Amino acid sequence: MEKYAIPKIGHPLLDAEHETMLGFAGLCTISCPHLESRQDCDGCIDGKPEQCRDGLHNILGHVLPYIQQHFEEEESLMKQAILNVKDPMHMPVHLSTHNRLLQQFRAVAAELNKASTGNYMVRKTRQLHDLITHELLDHIYQADEKLIPHMVK
Ligand SMILES: [Fe+2]
Ligand SMILES: [Fe+2]
User: Fold this and answer.
1) Is pLDDT at 71 greater than 60 in this prediction?
2) What percent of the chain has pLDDT over 90?
3) Domain limits of the chain?
4) What's the 39 CA to ligand 2 centre distance in angstroms?
5) Distance, CA 146 to ligand 1 centroid (Å)?
6) Nearest bound ligand to CA 69?
């Protein structure tokens, strides 16, 4: 399922963190091997949806703090470089995208906390996987890449 190219924006620290974040998508496919083939957990092995729920909790427990810390580091680097950034709207737009992304990740965690073990763990796991491989990846390509000419390495 992981067919995307890992973006390299040319900043060693941020590149390493982006790679780690995108690697969390691989944990989703390991936790549930049916992300592409199933709409729900009906007919899955007995006890597996409960395992998937614990797995998803576990992954979110790593993903959320990591992404939050990455955004904080990136924003701090951006603030140091802001005088050099030509587009005055870059900073506020970039920060609001970070906030939106964090809210989306937190929403997955909140829904999971509310849910009793159901037959939709495959959907929740796919939701987290797609957040990483679509929304977060798009952000790296569309916004993070623009920072690099201005950043201190
Ligand atoms: Fe960013
Ligand atoms: Fe980033």
Assistant:
1) yes
2) 50
3) 12-33+44-150
4) 31
5) 10
6) 2
Per-residue model confidence as pLDDT tens digits over 86-123:
677 788 899 999 999 999 999 999 988 876 666 788 99
Chosen CATH of 12-33+44-150 out of 1.10.3470, 1.20.120, 2.40.128, 1.10.287: 1.20.120
72 vs 147, more confident: 72
Lowest mean pLDDT among 30-34, 69-73, 89-93: 89-93
Q: Is the pTM of this model over 0.85?
A: yes
Distance 29 CA to ligand 1 centre (A): 24
Q: How far is the CA of 80 from the centre of ligand 1 (A)?
A: 14
CA of residue 101 to ligand 1 center, whole Å: 10
The C-alpha atoms of residue 97 and residue 128 are separated, in whole angstroms, by 17
